[in-house]
Structures are given as structure tokens and as C-alpha cells.
From TrEMBL:
Residues 1-449 form the Amidase domain. The active site is at K52 (charge relay system), S132 (charge relay system), S156 (acyl-ester intermediate). It comes from the Bacteria. One of its GO terms (cellular component) is glutamyl-tRNA(Gln) amidotransferase complex. Allows the formation of correctly charged Gln-tRNA(Gln) through the transamidation of misacylated Glu-tRNA(Gln) in organisms which lack glutaminyl-tRNA synthetase. The reaction takes place in the presence of glutamine and ATP through an activated gamma-phospho-Glu-tRNA(Gln). This is Glutamyl-tRNA(Gln) amidotransferase subunit A. Keywords: ATP-binding, Ligase, Nucleotide-binding, Protein biosynthesis, Transferase. It catalyses: L-glutamyl-tRNA(Gln) + L-glutamine + ATP + H2O = L-glutaminyl-tRNA(Gln) + L-glutamate + ADP + phosphate + H(+).
Amino acid sequence: TEAFLTAIDKADALNAFVHKTPELALERAKAADARIQAGDAPDMCGLPIGIKDLFCTKGVPSQAASRILEGFTPEYESTVSQKLEDAGAVMLGKLNMDEFAMGSSNETSVYGNAINPWRRGNDDADLTPGGSSGGSAAAVAADLCLAATGTDTGGSIRQPAAFTGITGIKPTYGRCSRWGVVAFASSLDQAGPMTKDVRDAAIMLEAMCGHDAKDSTSSELAVPNFEAMLTGDIKGKKIGIPKEYRMDGMPAEIEKLWAEGTEMLKAAGAEIVDISLPHTKYALPAYYVIAPAEASSNLARYDGVRYGHRATLGAGDGITEMYEKTRAEGFGHEVQRRVMVGTYVLSAGFYDAYYNRARRVRTLIKQDFENVFAQGIDAILTPATPSAAFGVGEMTDADPIQMYLNDVFTVTVNLAGLPGVSVPTGLNDQGLPLGLQLIGRPWEEGDLLNTAYALE
Ligand code: GLN
């Protein structure tokens, strides 16, 4: 723990940790030592980790990287971070992210973006670690912690994992309790681990998941020992390659990576099957209707009364001005855009045309996956991202669609509620990491991680 705390202090330039908790960490590390000495060490005893700022942590500022939560220090601990603490993990601090987890570059954070420890060839320019769990990815890649929590609504664990050469899994919707995790889009949000490798992901995922009476969508299914399922044996497994993911203009390096990953799985004894997921092209538009709709509702609670920031009011300002000024000051541009889009698609005149249509598309996307699983497909292999990490400022706010396109391979998985893992599988010509995604059957994270294990 001491070594990691020193490393974190030396790496301030990466802007990965937005709130450090050294005293608390040392106290918990001592307690972990005592448990180890007493011979009662749980799985993650004494392992130093980082927690994304989206998780509420008792007595420790939890701002979701937003100005509107300035000064908010929760009285409670999220179920997932509590479970990690119970498993002996030692929190080193809170990690940077896009504001309310809305973004793919960490650039919407009120703290400014975290920086990717990787460089493009000899070019010194800063690259983004991806987002929204960009601080988590940067911290794990730069050895500032052994592992970190992330959350994934449309790719926020898998894309930053791919951009930084680490492993990240979004479990099946309902595997991890959402209680105490600041809500973005409740029907899509899931927490998951971001780790150095697949084995660490298996260990940490087991510690994070399980039923929680405080989240009615959390599953009552038993949590398997995921690590024990990492045999590396994938003989006879059927791996689907969806033709719709071979998008126009896909960079040659991504095509090559995908082909190499396919060969690796084949060499390990898997059967490769061409499949079709016909509604894939509608996933991104459907996601960018559903996620903002849910966000506009979830973010209504930030009213200047219940949490965090309140604007300074002028003489004669009433409650309406208080709401308006607080929300105008407290939310950044991207969050405001989502609230506006969400409010629009839910409004009486447009509800059927946008929100209801997007929900129907979501069902079709889910059925696409159900159909291929019914044909005996065990997992689906796709690229995790359409490119390697891009430069800070390269995809500016001026063109949000460019940024949204980053999520093209990941949002389908959230819409269908399936588990998806991003595995680092190589470097491009400029020496930047690239990742492949494996999508699994619902509740079969163990099997999925075992396939990922064969790929790493
Ligand atoms: N980039 C996507 C978005 O901005 C996904 C974010 C996430 O998964 N939290 O909505």
C-alpha cells in the first residue's frame, strides 16, 4: 500500500486519482496485515485498488466528476465497494471519469481528463485513456493500483480497457448491485472490474457480485468461483463472428487484430462460425435515445437542495431561479446535452416516435443475440473499439457524433444486458494497445472469462 501511495503521488500528471485516501488506506492495510497473520485472509486481502468516483464511498467525497456534487460526502458505502472492502481490498482513493459517466475520453470530467500512460510511437502528445472509466484504466495501466472498479453503460469499462492494454469485464445486467452507484441510465448501468489480466478480473468480479436486497434488479443466482473456471480449455466451443461488425472504413489494424484473435481461438480448438446480428446498425441510435432518456430522469434529483452544489442567488430569486442557476452551473456541456435530448425524447409529442421506438429496437437487438445463442454459439468475438487511443482534444465537443461512434461495438451488449469482456490482444504499428471483445451468454461470465483467458 505504501509503495502504491508513493507511485500515485509521483504520477499526479496522469490525473488518474481525483481524491486520495492515504490515511484510510494505511489503516485498512494494517487491518489486512492482522487478518493475514491471524490466518483469516479473504481473497483480496491487502490488495490496493482504486474506486471510480461514481461509487459512493462513506466519508470520502464522491462527485461523479461533476461540479453539481461538489462537497458531497456520502453517509453510506455502495454495495460493490463494501463487498470489495469485505474481501480485504484496500481503497487508495477515487478515480477520474467522465462527468456522470457520459463520455468516451474522460474529457467531460470537472477535474480535467486523465491521461493515458501510453504514447503513440515517439510522439509525446497526450492520449486519452478512453472513458468514462478513464481514471481507472490509466491507474491500472500505470501501476498506480493493482486493479480498479469501473462502470459500463455503453462501453465505459471495455473501451478504456482496450485503450490502455488492460482487461475489463462488464458482467450480465443484474450481477452487481447498483446500490450506491450514482445512476446514469439505470437499465444499462453495470459495475465491473478493470485489471491487469483475466485471472485478476475473475477474482475481483467474484468479490463484487451477488444479490443485494437494496437493488431490485440484482440477481439471486449463486455467484460461481470464476477463477476456478479458468482452465484454458475451449475445445469445441463455438465462437461467432458477426458480419455486421465488419463496418465500412474499419482500419486495417483492427481487421488484422480481429483476424489474429479468430486464429488464436481456432488454434485453441474452438470452432469459428460466421453469424449475423441484423439489427446491429440501429444499436447506436437506440442507445443515444434510451441512455439520455434515463439520464434526464435520474439527474432530476440534482436540484440544489438535496446534494452538493447550489448557485449563489440574487435578490428576488425564487425556487425556479435556484434550480435553473444551480443546474446551469453544476452540469457540464455534455451532461446538459444529454438532459435536453432525454427530456425531448420523453416529451408527450415525441415519446412514441423516439423513446418507444428505441425500446422496440432494443428488443430486436436482444433477440438477435438470443437467436445466435439458440444456434449453439457460446461466445461472440468482435473488436472492442474502432481505433486505438486517440489524442486529447482530437475529438472535440464540436462533433459529439464522432465521440459517440466510439461505442459502436460495445453498446449492443448493454442494450441486450449481456456480459462482455475486453482483452488486450496486441499493439498496433505505433506501439499502442488494441483490444478484442468477447460477448457471452447471460450469467455465463465464468465461461466467457475462460475464453478470454485463451485469448490473452
Ligand atoms: N460513451 C458512452 C456514453 O457516453 C458510454 C458511457 C458509459 O458506458 N458510461 O454514453
